[in-house]
Design brief:
about 55 residues; Rubrerythrin, domain 2; 3-stranded antiparallel beta sheet; elongated
């Protein structure tokens, strides 16, 4: 399952949450630091590694 990164709009805390792709659109999270429901998904970089050399 993918790990998504979120940022609290109230306190600025950045945290990660593991969730199923289908649940990503409907999940309602609260900040683990301050408890605020004002959290926003933040884009993250990813690294794709393949076994084949080009």
């Amino acid at each position: 399952m993918p790990t998504y990164q979120y940022r609290c709009e109230k306190c600025g805390h950045v945290f990660e949450h593991v969730e199923h792709i289908a649940e990503h659109e409907t999940v309602r999270l609260t900040c683990p630091k301050c408890g605020s429901p004002a959290v926003q998904h933040t884009p993250t970089r990813f690294f794709a590694q393949t076994s084949k050399k080009s």
